[in-house]
């Protein structure tokens, strides 16, 4: 028993550490324009592929742009787009799953069949096709990832509602004359939020990787907008000449994705709800 | 069993109709006029007259549902139209790409599986050992790194720094090493994590302690554990198929491996819509059929599932 309590406290401490780390990353992305050493979009023919120095802490890329500034601005793109995407798909999927689980019948059939159909496409394949056809841009890339992303939350929410529906307190709420809306928002939602949030937390890293992948392929966030995936792709040809142009955004991606993935794991461990994937 | 398979096949037909409809709709809704796109892809100077003539030839003046029906019936016979770019049959291009993609995907899957399974067993048996910690770190890192990043880092360290391997993949065995590594590392990381969790779960079950207490040899107990874990393992492997198909687009583009993914990316660059359409329809079909086979395998592994006639 003693050991268990100790591990719980340990887990909570770890969660706080990673919450702070993620907080720092979010803060950096918010104040990025203020701490950029140079203009991230200013090109300079004289300073092409320059090694890291005092003026350009991470060196310059093939157009002579300051990599440090671009990495900082890229944090904004990556973190904002991933968090926004998870938030939007979470809300959309949860609402649909809630309605499907509660009303059952035709609503359930339509929502779940739609989810089945979306799940018949491998996620990245559909995302690449959608983003490729719509052309670049962050909005389109987010749409491409979100088109299948919501099904995860819809299925989970529906399963939760089906399980909760038979609980005595839900019957009680219904018998005491609560409206469907009030049961859904006040009784069901708070009780199913735990596992749903865990899933959402673990999805931030996944979405970040997805959007960076699309940008890397040139069909996500496009130049001159700073984004780590597209920076890595653009500088890839100069790997031998200017490895820093690839390594800086690569390390930034690794740190950020790992932090958010670890944060998701910590949230799961602390809430201790066995949601795998 | 036969009834169950029949039911699933019926479901498959429904899903495929929906998938093909969405795929067609996607192209139909794509910005720009299809006739103009075709002419642009061929590099023909576009005038109003030529566009009108091409529209008539392509049947674009017919109602949407007629166009879809025509396309779907042709697709059913294996005719996915011709590439805008060079006029070759899309189906033939896909068949050629499929060969390379399956070589890459299957070797990557096999590599990931063969590394992950023994490591997962070892770490589950020796929980919290040094090996467990190292493996956990590796699998966590592998799971967190985007595959394009792994490719570029591999290129940097193996090709540029150590000069061990060529930068682009030719179709030889040596050329397969890099794309295969890049594709399998993230999947391997996920496998180790999930396999280990499953083994730990099985090892905690009463039947294991019961067998151990009765003095059953460890390898026989492990045999039962493996058998009982096989359904979950199959599920995990099945889930990775989608990652493999999506990942192969990125990896093949980076390493110029002439598979389906590179075909699709080239088609996207050239706005070669029939090829994109064919790629999406074809990959989804492969994906759905593999998932169906896996579901049927469940009831083959676990006879209890046969009675109530359903997989998970």
What does this structure look like?
The complex is a heterodimer of chains A (about 280) and B (about 300). The model of chain A has no long low-confidence stretch (mean pLDDT about 85). With about 280 residues, chain A is mainly α. Chain A starts with a helix and ends in a 6-residue tail after the last helix. Chain A has a single domain, classed as MetI-like fold (Orthogonal Bundle), CATH 1.10.3720. Chain A is about 75% helix and about 0% strand. The radius of gyration of chain A is 22 Å and the shape is elongated. Chain A contains 9 helices and no strands. With about 300 residues, chain B is an all-alpha fold. Chain B is about 80% helix and about 0% strand. Chain B contains 13 helices and no strands. In chain B, α5 packs across α11. Chain B starts with a helix and ends in a 5-residue tail after the last helix. Chains A and B meet through α3, α4, α7, α8 and α9 of A and α1, α6, α7, α10 and α11 of B.
Give a nutshell description of this structure.
The complex is a heterodimer of chains A (277) and B (312). With 277 residues, chain A is mostly helical. Chain A is built from nine helices and no strands.
């Amino acid at each position: 028993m003693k050991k268990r309590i100790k591990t719980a406290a340990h887990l909570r401490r770890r969660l706080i550490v990673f919450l702070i780390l993620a907080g720092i990353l979010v803060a950096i992305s918010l104040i990025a324009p203020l701490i950029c050493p140079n203009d991230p979009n200013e090109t300079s023919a004289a300073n092409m592929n320059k090694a890291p120095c005092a003026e350009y802490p991470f060196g310059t890329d093939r157009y002579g742009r300051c990599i440090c500034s671009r990495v900082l601005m890229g944090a904004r793109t990556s973190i904002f787009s991933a968090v926004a995407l998870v938030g939007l798909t979470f809300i959309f999927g949860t609402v649909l799953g809630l309605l499907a689980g509660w009303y059952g019948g035709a609503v359930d059939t339509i929502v779940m069949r739609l989810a089945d159909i979306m799940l018949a496409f491998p996620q990245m394949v559909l995302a690449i096709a959608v983003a490729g056809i719509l052309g670049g841009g962050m909005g389109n890339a987010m749409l491409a990832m979100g088109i299948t992303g919501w099904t995860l939350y819809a299925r989970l929410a529906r399963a939760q509602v089906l399980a909760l529906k038979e609980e005595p307190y839900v019957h009680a709420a219904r018998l005491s004359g609560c409206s469907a809306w009030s049961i859904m928002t006040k009784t069901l939602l708070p009780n199913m939020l735990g596992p749903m949030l865990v899933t959402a937390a673990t999805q931030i890293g996944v979405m970040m990787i997805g959007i960076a992948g699309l940008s890397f392929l040139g069909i996500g966030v496009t130049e001159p907008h700073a984004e780590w995936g597209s920076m890595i792709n653009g500088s890839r040809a100069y790997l031998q000449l200017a490895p820093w142009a690839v390594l800086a955004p690569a390390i930034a991606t690794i740190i950020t994705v790992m932090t958010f993935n670890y944060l998701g794991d910590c949230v799961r461990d602390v809430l201790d709800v066995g949601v795998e994937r | 069993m036969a009834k169950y398979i029949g039911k699933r096949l019926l479901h498959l037909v429904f899903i495929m109709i929906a998938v093909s409809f969405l795929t067609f709709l996607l192209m139909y809704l794509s910005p720009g006029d299809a006739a103009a796109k075709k002419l642009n892809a061929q590099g023909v100077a576009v005038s109003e007259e030529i566009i009108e003539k091409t529209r008539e030839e392509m049947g674009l003046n017919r109602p949407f549902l007629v166009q879809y029906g025509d396309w779907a019936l042709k697709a059913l016979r294996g005719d996915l139209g011709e590439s805008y770019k060079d006029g070759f049959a899309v189906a033939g291009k896909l068949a050629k790409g499929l060969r390379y993609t399956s070589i890459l995907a299957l070797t990557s899957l096999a590599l990931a599986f063969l590394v992950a399974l023994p490591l997962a067993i070892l770490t589950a048996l020796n929980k919290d050992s040094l090996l467990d910690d190292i493996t956990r770190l590796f699998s966590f890192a592998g799971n967190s790194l985007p595959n394009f990043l792994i490719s570029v880092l591999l290129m940097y360290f193996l090709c540029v720094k150590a000069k061990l391997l060529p930068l682009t993949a030719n179709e030889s065995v040596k050329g397969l090493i890099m794309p295969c590594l890049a594709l399998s590392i993230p999947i391997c990381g996920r496998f180790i994590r999930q396999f280990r969790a499953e083994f730990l779960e099985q090892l905690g079950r009463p039947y294991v302690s019961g067998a151990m207490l009765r003095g059953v040899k460890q390898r026989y107990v492990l045999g039962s554990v493996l058998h009982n874990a096989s359904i979950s393992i199959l599920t995990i492997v099945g889930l990775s198929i989608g990652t493999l198909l999506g990942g192969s687009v990125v990896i093949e583009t980076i390493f110029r491996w002439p598979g389906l993914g590179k075909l699709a990316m080239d088609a996207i660059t050239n706005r070669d819509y029939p090829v994109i359409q064919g790629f999406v329809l074809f990959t989804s079909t492969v994906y759905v059929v593999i998932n169906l086979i896996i579901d049927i395998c469940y009831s083959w592994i676990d006879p209890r599932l046969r009675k109530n006639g359903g997989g998970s």
